[in-house]
Amino acid sequence: MSLFGIQEDHLENYLSLDQKLIKNKTATFFMRAQGDAMAPLIAARDILIVDRSLKAKSNQLIIANYNDQMFCRRFLKSTQGFILRAENSRFKDIYITNEDQLDVFGVITSVVREFV
Amino acid sequence: MMALVDCNAFFCSCEKLFRPDLKNRSVIVLSNNDGCVVAATRDIKKKFGIRIGTPYFQIKQLCDYNQIAVFSSNFSLYTNISDRVMKTLSRFTPNMEAYSVDEAFLDLSGIKNLESYVQEIKKSIEVEIGIPVGIGVAPTKMLAKVANNLAKKNDETNGIVILNSKEKQDQALEKFPVEDLWGIANASSEKLYMLGIKTAKQFRDYKNENYVKKLLSVTGLQRQQELRGIACFQIENIFIAKKQIQATRTFGTAVTEIHPLKEAVANYVTSAAQRLRSQESVCCEISVYFRTDKHNPGIIYHQFFKTTRLSSGTANTFKLIEIAWKLVDELFVDGIEYKKAGVTLSRIDNKHETQMNLFEQCDSLKNEVLMKVMDDINIKDGELLLKSLACGVNNHAWRMLREYKSPRFTTSWSELPKVI
Q1: Residue B196 contacts residue B207 (beta carbons within 8 Å)
Q2: Where do the domains of chain B lie, and which CATH numbers do they carry?
């Protein structure tokens, strides 16, 4: 039953998180955070939304392949080269001096955390 | 111009995507049941002489010793990555044909700066999805296949070969073995060898077209025309319903009793019937087959096969299982170790156009709704959540071996790639 036809005119779709958080569906991958290197910004078990179609800019969060592992770190451009920095100060910076060695998997565009 | 985009060692590239430790390692992927090699990185053949189709048990030690990374087939991963590749490619042309899980023809007619456009395509797939591709471009599909083949074989091409002039085509076809041509099977190439034709160029320039037609049928002649740059094969992007649907598997361990054999058959019927419904078809014929181990010289080889015609078309899983089980009952012989079974649905019609039968009921509306609900739930879940109890609940006896399967990285929340 409609209220003088108002409902039909004003029915809009439910909001979709997919639409909000995923800009490039085919280039977007989900990953699971482990450990506390990025604490308190990113916690263990968080779902990371990673877009491969974006080019990493300085100060962005990225997934980088380094030493046979996938790292979640902040990407910094410095005069000496690139730095992969953890949020947690107990973790050391990773310096990448040779540009070719930097293997960025993608840029983290958002984080999903489930509480319940 | 026609482009053929082909993913390099696609299954292996998928396995490497979330495994940086495998970046420079040799990788092989095994068939269903870990039977034989279905995909291998390029160095595998050169370094170890392992070919596609080699049984795994023959090379297991070699793999262990040389630290070759071995994977069972992970189809949920490959299908997901394939879908990403195809969707990304479709951005570049309105006219595209996904030719297989890892290759597609793209119609690039009207594109001005072909070389940079093709480089852009290649870069997009490699950057956005992370799967390396080779691209061959030429006036026809047949020549695009040749170009693609050369792009993959020669490192100096950087994965792109464009055969847009007669000279380039001459040069490419001159050294190209005729048996490596697309659609030229062994039998055909042997016939061509008899005529002294060994290279693709000799085949292209062979003048007696009538004889080519007689020898290799009309399609053979079309292939020759295509090599000459005359397009005979168009982009086929319309969905063509399959005329026959098959589901066959080798068992993890041999089955000797009728019960597990029936369970396996019920599962194959379930998967075949789901595919049948997904193309909006019904079938009027079902065949069941099972056999013993082919590779074991110690036992006598037995094969059983039987077909039943149905008086009216159906896509009802339960009805088809019932009929398939009758066939198993009729064929089954005690005391034999069965290693493989399969089901074929044939005489397939569109469900809206099939012949009704006066005396037998076709699928009722109620039944159709039930099937649709089951399919919707099963497709959404990705696994067979709802199925007939005939399929069994514990398939230990015959279930496939997948000892080396990687996680479902892109299709399961609990198996996402982990980062530190």
Answers
A1: no
A2: 1-162 (3.30.70.270), 165-238 (1.10.150.20), 245-391 (3.30.1490.100)
Residue A2 pLDDT greater than 60, yes or no: no
**Residue (of B131, B200, B105, B120) closest to B160 by Cα position:** B120
Q: Which residue ranges of chain B lie beneath pLDDT 70? A: 237-240, 355-362, 380-383, 395-400
**Do B270 and B321 form a contact (C-beta atoms < 8 A)?**
yes
pLDDT exceeds 60 at position A34: yes
CB of A33 less than 8 A from some CB of B: yes
pLDDT digits (tens, 9 = 90+) for A65-107: 998 899 999 999 988 889 999 999 999 999 887 766 778 999 9
pLDDT of B126 reads: 95
- DSSP label at B91? T
Give contacts of A31 with chain B, Cβ < 8 Å.
416-419
**Residue B250 CB burial class (10 angstroms; 0-12, 13-18, ≥19):** buried
Nearest-CA distance from B122 to chain A in Å?
Answer: 13
A26, A46, A52, A73, best to mutate vs chain B, most B CBs in 10 Å? A26
Contact B201, B173 (CB under 8 A): yes
* Tokens (6 digits) for B102: 């890892």
pTM, entire model: 0.81
> Is A30 within 8 Å of chain B by CB?
yes
The answer to whether the beta carbons of residues B36 and B53 sit under 8 Å apart is yes
Tell me what pLDDT residue A7 has: 65
